[in-house]
Amino acid sequence: MKERVGPGFAAVLCPTNKIVNEIAPRLDRLLNAKAMTSKDFDLSHRGVKVITMHAAKGLQFPVVAVAKIEAGKFPWPIYQSEDRDEHEAALRRAFFVACSRSTSRLLLMVPSFAPSPFVESLTDDHWTIEGKPAD
Question: Which helix (DSSP H) or strand (DSSP E) does residue 51 occupy?
Fold first, then answer.
């Protein structure tokens, strides 16, 4: 990576607050990661900010990792009262917001065993894809 930035210039974006709270304590302590909500967001925190995709709207970071882009977790199942198309469209917008928060480097954490259908439209033409099985 050519960027030389400290952890305070990075964010991990997650689909839900539950995942935010699971991931933040698991990151290396040298990253000084902090789980934040939109209400207690602290841009001046000198470590990695771990927030939801929705809370990241309007923010930008040199380095962004988008976590848990996994079928069944993102997009998550709809409730009976929800319209399927509206639900999926809203989550696609959240995914776009998350991916567009990076000014330099973007990492999508997608498990090979259950990738989210949202990543199917991402082509190799514009990405350096590591860990992808050879065709």
Answer: strand 49-52
**Rg of the chain taking only CA atoms, in angstroms:** 15
What is the C-alpha to C-alpha distance for residues 74 and 60, in angstroms, rounded to an integer? 22
- For residue range 17-50, list pLDDT tens digits in order: 999 999 999 999 999 999 999 899 999 999 999 9
For residue 14 the two structure tokens come to 């997650």
Q: How far apart are CA 14 and CA 51, in angstroms?
A: 6
The count of other CB atoms within 10 Å of the CB of residue 43 is: 9
Tokens encoding 86: 């509206």
Say what the pTM is. 0.85
CB contact at 8 A, 91 and 74: yes
What is the CATH code of the structural domain delimited by 7-116? 3.40.50.300
Dihedral (Cα; 8, 10, 12, 17), 10-degree rounding: 40
CA distance 18 to 127: 29
